[in-house]
Design a protein that fits this description.
mainly alpha; 434 Repressor (Amino-terminal Domain); Serine Threonine Protein Phosphatase 5, Tetratricopeptide repeat; 3 domains; 0% strand; elongated
Length: 253
């Protein structure tokens, strides 16, 4: 990463400004600007917004952070972690996510993915006791400080499931009162803002998701209801018939 001193010098030259002109603009001495550019000292933190505004860039860009590369790196870590978790590999993604958080300690997406990895690993009773405080801590942190709705909703969902899995039903029901209803969620409402092919594509995707949910509901009902084996088989046959007809009709794999 380019140092702030090098960045300031390069930006000043792109503006075709002398050190004296920059000093006058910032209300400091030319010697102060010279020390900034040699790395002997750094601008006061309160001066960063003014410098960023002068050069027409963000403070992150001023400090040399490449937001595009940062986003790609974080997305790559999350994608790799989720792929491993889906293969029931849990300890490695936890280690990799912690490493990434050492570099980006306040990234909500990394924290949320770590909570997911900890939750999945908690199927092991010993790990469940070990990770329980951290799962709750990440939830509290995201809910208190994050403005990212995805992270807020996902950590709420994960803690709800964690409480259910650990027989803390009262706590789970308390959390459930903070969940959005179907009628207010994105998937239920975005249809009305779509037109033409975009609307058709959305409906195809939602039908696919609804089919998975319906199939799961029928299976869960057959497992948990007090019905005969024959009735369970009938439900299983019905589930398979619905899946086949809907998949064929809408070309769902």
């Amino acid at each position: 990463m380019v140092s702030l001193s090098e960045r300031l010098k390069a930006l000043r030259k792109t503006k075709d400004m002398t050190q004296e002109q920059l000093a006058e603009y910032m209300g400091v001495s030319p010697q102060a600007v010279s020390r900034w550019e040699t790395g002997a000292t750094s601008p006061d933190i309160s001066a960063l917004p003014q410098l960023a505004d002068l050069f027409g860039i963000s403070i992150d860009e001023l400090l040399g952070y490449d937001e595009t590369e940062r986003h790609k790196e974080i997305s790559s870590v999350i994608d790799a972690a989720e792929e491993q978790i889906n293969k029931n590999i849990t300890e490695k993604p936890i280690t990799e996510l912690r490493k990434a958080l050492n570099k980006y300690p306040n990234n909500d997406r990394l924290l949320t993915c770590l909570m997911y990895a900890l939750y999945v690993a908690s199927e092991n009773d010993d790990l469940c006791r070990k990770y329980d405080p951290e799962i709750i801590s990440i939830y509290d942190r995201i809910q208190k400080y994050s403005a990212d709705n995805y992270c807020r909703n996902e950590t709420l969902r994960l803690l709800f499931r964690h409480y259910c899995d650990t027989d803390r039903i009262a706590e789970a029901k308390r959390l459930a009162t903070n969940m959005a209803s179907v009628e207010t969620c994105y998937d239920y409402n975005i249809y009305w803002a779509l037109k033409g092919e975009e609307r058709v594509s959305f409906l195809e995707n939602r039908i696919s998701g609804d089919l998975r949910q319906l199939s799961w509901d029928i299976w869960a009902y057959s497992v948990h209801s007090d019905i005969s084996d024959d009735e369970k088989q009938q439900l299983n046959d019905l589930r398979q018939e619905i899946e086949l007809k809907v998949k064929n009709k809408f070309c769902i794999e």
